[in-house]
Amino acid sequence: MSVKYTEDHEWINVDGDIGTVGISPYAANALGDIVFVELPEIGREMAKGDEAAVVESVKAASEVYAPVAGEVTAVNEALEDAPETVNASADADGWFIKIKITDASELDALMDEAAYKTYCDGL
Amino acid sequence: MTDLKITALHEMHKSLGAKMMPFAGYDMPVQYPLGVLKEHLHTREKAGLFDVSHMGQVFLIPEDKDFKTAAKALEKLVPADIQSLEPGQQRYSQFLNADGGILDDLMISRLAMTGYEHCLYLVVNAGCKDDDYAHLEAHMPKNVTVSVKDDTLSLIALQGPRAANILGCFNPDVEKLTFMTHTDLELSGTLDAPVWAHVSRSGYTGEDGYEISAKHEDMVRLVKELLQYDDVEPIGLGARDSLRLEAGLCLYGHDIDTSVSPIEAGLIWSVQKHRRGADAGYLGAKRVASDLADKSTKRLVGIQPEGRAPAREHTEIQDMDGNVIGQITSGGFGPTVGSPVAMGYVARKFTKAGTPVQLMVRGKARAAKIAKLPFAPHNYFRG
User: Fold this and answer.
1) Distance of alpha carbon B94 from alpha carbon B266, whole angstroms
2) What is the pLDDT, as a whole number, of residue A1?
3) In this complex, do B333 and A38 lie within 8 Å of one another by their Cβ atoms?
4) Domain ranges, ordered by start, for chain A
């Protein structure tokens, strides 16, 4: 298992050819209290950078992008009734979707945890 | 890009950990570490303190010291009846252009202080104030002075059910004020030196509370003291927006602008009966009269989305057959209501509360109903 991060603050936790996708605690904190999460249909094919989900705070809506290409195999339905889980546990229970990764080499372009931390410190 | 202006409380916002954001040319706090949701709820439950010093504060002073001179002059620019204002009374109105479109909305007070009862005090929106001042300068007769006080006066709001008790610690007389009245008095309490302040019982949250105007340096001292109270939290522009939306109050540039008249915006309550005719004598009066009569005009309504998905500004509103009937002008999540809330314009035949409509959110039709405003009940103190 390895976690990789995008510059848009999504994380993908890879286990075999399945990646679990969420947003980082840094992003969840910046968004503020999350009141709604819109998730994609299971089975949807996404290219890297496609809109994978939408998170809404009191004030604004923000997009979550697919870190790599893949097919949605599961969505975190618990977020429909408890979107605040994203704030409470952005890097675990607050995951958004699981995808079957199309091309694992796309992961190489993402940041590892140390690189992501350096990236956030520079923001 | 021009440099952002700051208010006298800017340093305090930063030291309180506020997230700052440009707003109407000012660097303003959008939220504090508490966050928009909790700031909103805190205001409804206790007391929220808002820096609204970016708003414009201007006095109209008639040379002949006759209130009627100032009142009659202002009545040429706003639908509200001004001549009947008693000292200490405040009214909400709008500046209209010749076509009846809304240039800005504003609060108008007749001062109560002895020797100043002939003066009017206006509070206008930050984003419109330069245009408002020019509008006033262009239309006020020579014998009415337009005196802009943004360089000397700060403005804050203290809103919520604990506001009266807390401000009452600085001067118990403020507790006697009723909604939409004001007074000028000394606030002292635990302050090292008293603060002379203009205090009105009004606000933009739907809650009981005050708007307080004082000199910049005095305001810094007053705010420091107010924040000593456990029940007072500083509140940013984020929660100010969600609070006013739940209260069904219009935001200039979103729910109202030059494309709509006060009648379309549902502000008929702010136009006194004898000011509704085409011959009422103010800029835009014809539009007010014709919009009242014309059934084909649109109206601002409350919209209650079903489910949890907020419908934001510019969301298309459709009837149940898929025909476009209007657009959302303000939309978000209402923390007190516990669901999304919105306002928008619809064709007049769809304005009845309970009418089902659909909202096109990210390409998907979502069910909603026309709702009565406000979403959260007003808790004004009427005595």
Assistant:
1) 12
2) 61
3) no
4) 2-121
